[in-house]
Design a protein that fits this description.
The protein is built from eleven helices and 13 strands. The chain is of the alpha+beta class and 331 residues long. The two termini are 37 Å apart.
Length: 331
Amino acid sequence: MQLSNLQTAFINNYQGNLPLLERPFLTMAKQLSCSEDQLLATVKAMQENKLITRFGPLYDSSRLGGGLTLAAMSVPENRYEAVTHLLNTYPEVAHNYKRKHKLNMWFVLATETPVEIIQLVSRIEKNTGLTVYNFPKQQEFYIGLWLHLSSDGKVTTIPVPAADYQCTNTDSIKLDDIDRKLVAVTQSGLPVNHTPYQSIAETTGISQHDVIQRLKNMLSCGIIRRIGAVPDHYQFGLTVNGMTVWDIKDKKVSALGETIGQLDFVSHCYQRPRHPCVWHYNLFAMVHGTSQKEVNNKVKQIKGLLKKNCRAHEILYSSAILKKTGLRYVA
């Protein structure tokens, strides 16, 4: 894909760390050596061309007190289309992928409270007549897909750079009604204009200063992971994703999960539960690449690090994107 120097620089620098200032695009434009209007036009064009799927805060469901889980079903091929249609009608289904495995439908569920996850799983089972295997996160070792575009057109994934606003308070905080309204308004993205925070202020009925301060507070306690552009990695050439799953001794999974989560090419790494007689893997690591060969080579590196601690592993390649929307936490 041929991108302008400005497009490349914007993607490389602003998948996070959007300035929390009255004129954020003006600040970014100065760093990128362009005018504010030129940058605004560039970002709007990338949105229109689907190079950017959204632009705004990335919220952490667990910090918001919501429910979030990965789930899977084994769907007969002759029912696959019908079950996909039914499942995708649920607003709580954010992502849904077809994967090459006996468990051939994998989807992410996001609800406002954890208990609603269990209720939703039961409802899906009742409406489909199929067993839903629930894989809630038990430990998070790493999450963060950050693309780096090189001058020769190649794309790689790198660890998320250090944030301007670090998470300094790991204690959970209680959101008030204004916070919740702010989350509801911004979870689908920020306006791309000269004063996006002022636009949010007018929508929420609070001052621009209050909007900025509340966003800073949510960054400091981890409710917001980062604020910036979310590129469509498929559009940029990372068209192959392998969900790698590993059977690790439970007493070793914490240390090994931390090791695997630090690899440059791993975008998500979690411990998730086993399901006896059906699923014996407890470590999940998502690997992206431009080809299946590239992903396979990266998986070999993981296997080399795990050595004898790994009893078995598989790579579940996605063969179709059935649904992909931003997570919604607050109605």
